[in-house]
Amino acid sequence: MTLALILLLIGLACLWAHRRRTAVTFFILSLGWVFAVGCGPVADGLLTDLQRGFPQEITQWGQHNVIVLLGAGTQRGDQGTVEPGLMANARILRAAELYHACKATGAVCRLEVSGGDAAGLKQSEAAVYSRTLIALGVTDTDLLAESRSMNTFQNAEFTKPLLAALQADKVVLVSSATHLRRATLYFAHFAINVEPVRADYLGIRYDWLPQPFNMAMADVALHEYVGIARYRFYNVMGWNPPATPRAAS
User: Fold this and answer.
1) Less Cβ crowding at N or C end of the chain, within 10 Å?
2) Neighbours of 211 (CB within 10 A)
């Protein structure tokens, strides 16, 4: 998205090349955007606001708990095996840590992995992540696989009936800090009350020269803001399924 805006501003500068002052203005704006994002300030502001307020741990477990782990892609390794994507490993590890902390209390603890085959590798994220979770000591009988969802909205939609069957009194949602604001919004659409826990936290690198890393981090944040705005727009237009009414307390 940051690159697209840069190219748009440069394109406008070329389009208005016959009007020198206008062309120079667009060129300066494109250069300013490169430095504002690439040197750190814009990317830092976007990420800080997006990730604020999400804890790393659970302070109080219920009697019947479900930990919902959201997928973050899969990839094919150099040996041909399908494995978790780069952003997935921190989520998997945090979900396993939470599972063991929950089990230590003596409560009922289940771990649901939500994610289909969005990468088209013939294996769902739920199946791929489950193998790693079992290797990390999660009991296979405590694992649930939701392997149909292709996006975060479907993560929430297809998780709803699984949670209803389990009658959990606490639902813990595990994802990246950048992803949790949008994810909790989608789960609330289906009247799923979750306690979000972050698996990772992204930061930027301030520098005098624009850094590609900072621009990539800004893109991650902008993707989430666009997703939130799109959700609200779809609600206004009636394109989302009706929100599930919350049960009376």
Assistant:
1) C
2) 18
